[in-house]
Amino acid sequence: MSLSNDKSQMVVDFSPDDVYNALLNVLQHDSAIKLSNANEKSRTINAKFGANMWSWGENITIVVNPENNVGSSVLISSASKMLAVTDWGKNAKNITEIMQKLALELENGDYEKSSNSISNSQSDVFEQIKKLSELKESGIIEEEEFQTKKAELLRKI
């Protein structure tokens, strides 16, 4: 048996400091997540999801880095706390939820888009849609969520 883990990355058109602060705000207001450590200098956040009927819990690591002067790269890793062959998609689902909440916070919060931002390339958008489709096919997200997110991505190209 091995630790079940997932990771995902997204690029956003906001400064690393704004993204880091938005993540802190999102995580501090989510009752399912407990912040373990937040390092402003390295823009690294460690958090934990508690046990539930699908999982023994997860350790989450989030790292925010500058992305070629056009915004920020957000890498989220999730590892099961206990040895497991599978996590039944829970790690990936939690990563997706954090990313969705971050996107909403950045869109609706008091954050300014990077002045040098450029839109996602078509290949990046299609790759993200492919990943969403895989999540839908595995039952992690519903058809409605898939269609909504797909429409948002397609508007970017």
Secondary-structure map with pairings?
Layout: E1 5-12, H1 16-28, E2 33-39, E3 44-49, E4 58-66, E5 72-80, H2 90-108, H3 122-137, H4 143-155
Antiparallel strand pairs: 1-5, 2-3, 3-4, 4-5
Helix pairs in contact: 1-2, 3-4
Low-confidence stretches: none
Please state the overall shape, judged from the principal axes of the Cα atoms. globular
What is the topology, as strand order, of the major beta sheet?
1-5-4-3-2
- Indicate the proportion of strand residues: 15-25%
Query: What gap, in angstroms, lies between the N and C termini?
Result: 42 Å
Question: Would you write up a description of this structure?
Answer:
The protein is an alpha+beta fold. It folds into two domains: 5-112, 2-Layer Sandwich (Alpha-D-Glucose-1,6-Bisphosphate, Chain A, domain 4); 119-157. It is 39% helix and 25% strand. A five-stranded antiparallel sheet has the order 1-5-4-3-2, covered by helices on one side. The protein starts with a strand and ends with a helix. The model has no long low-confidence stretch (mean pLDDT 80).
